[in-house]
Amino acid sequence: MDVITLLAAVLVNALLMMLALFVGVGIRSRSGLQAWQFMLLGQALGFGLLIVATRAQPQLLATLGVMALSGSAAAMVLSVGRFLSLRTPAWALLLPPLLLGAVHAVIYGDQKLATGITNLVIGLQILWGSGLLLRGAGRVRWRWLCGAAAMANALFTLGRAALVLGWPEVYPRFIAPHPLNFASLMLLNASLVLGTMGFLLAHRDAAEQALVRLASLDPLTGLLNRREWMNRAGRALGAAGGTADDATVLLMLDLDHFKLINDERGHPVGDEVLKLAGEVLRGELRASDLLGRYGGEEFCLLLRHCDPEAFSRLDARLHQALRRRCEASLGFVVDFSAGAVRVQPGETLAAAIKRADDQLYRAKHAGRGRTLCADGVL
Ligand SMILES: Nc1nc2c(ncn2[C@@H]2O[C@H](COP(=O)(O)OP(=O)(O)OP(=O)(O)O)[C@@H](O)[C@H]2O)c(=O)[nH]1
């Protein structure tokens, strides 16, 4: 085994993974994965140039090679930043490869210094990326996988820098068949494979989350859609066992004369009213309350631990907030009618909804703009 063969293996590996990502998920699939493909390309290009530099144009090709490797590390940081929605300033990404290239070209004559500076800069770049991945990784598997692989690679690269700058007499030349060189290239290879697997997992996780969001949220208001709300409300009632002291209130709420708004002001204004109503409701409720868009201009709320006084105050706030908000934003007042019931012990969600809907129907017929409760009280 010699270092050039190992280098060539890393290069081929990086190229194949890049190709596999290109064929498997496409270059435009997701910006984070796209940057990761550039990272792999940078590795292949950098090591390719370093291999050729051992035979021809050493100064120029080795300088371009280390620039490609540093650019590849910048692409890794960019990829991490995009996956985690973090801001990575362009200057901090671009400056290291450019400065490293300039410095490397100038100090090329001093091989040890050039190698030390190169490893130091690239090691710090990878350390940055691995730090972003590991900080707050929590239970996210792909972050641990990519972060640990990158961290090991960063520490090894920084170790090389420390060795060549501090103890140049024991540091082996880059292409010398030394165990340190073999270990470092094998580690690099492993970190490329693990990192790529990690980012594929991240890509899959993100796609899964997008699907879950799509299946459970109403796209216009961002509230839970009817199916998801029913699921969660059913689970909440099941968990509470419908006990009376739980004081669970179900409220069905329907905007008044909404058809008129659509007809007179247009569908987009109607959509705006629905969005505002969603925001108002979300803003007035507690985190433990369950809010959803039941359909059309009807909303459904499950309020836990809600005593009658608290409910009357909340109801008054909701009417007032919707009227004010629509008047301030759209120039006209919108109100709603609602029916509320206290969920009885053992009562099913469907039965409670039916009772609340009956109250809503009564509220509409009693002149709208009001909330009615079964038997007049909750
Ligand atoms: N803009 C918009 N309109 C919708 C949407 N979903 C349902 N609608 C409209 O909501 C209107 C509901 O009308 P109705 O059921 O007659 O209710 P209303 O006019 O509010 O009358 P009352 O409830 O009796 O006060 C219909 O015109 C639907 O087309 C939506 O997502 N956006």
Automatic annotation (TrEMBL):
SMART domains assigned to the protein according to its UniProt record, in alphabetical order: GGDEF
InterPro entries: Diguanylate_Cyclase, GGDEF_dom, Nucleotide_cyclase, Rev_trsase/Diguanyl_cyclase
Transmembrane segments annotated in the record for this chain: 6-26, 38-54, 60-78, 90-107, 113-134, 146-168, 180-202
Record-listed E.C. numbers: 2.7.7.65
Record keywords, A-Z: Membrane, Transmembrane, Transmembrane helix
Keyword Transmembrane listed: yes
Reactions listed under catalytic activity: 2 GTP = 3',3'-c-di-GMP + 2 diphosphate
Domain GGDEF, residue spans: 246-376
Keyword Transmembrane helix (UniProt): yes
Protein name according to UniProt: diguanylate cyclase
Species this chain originates from: Pelomonas parva
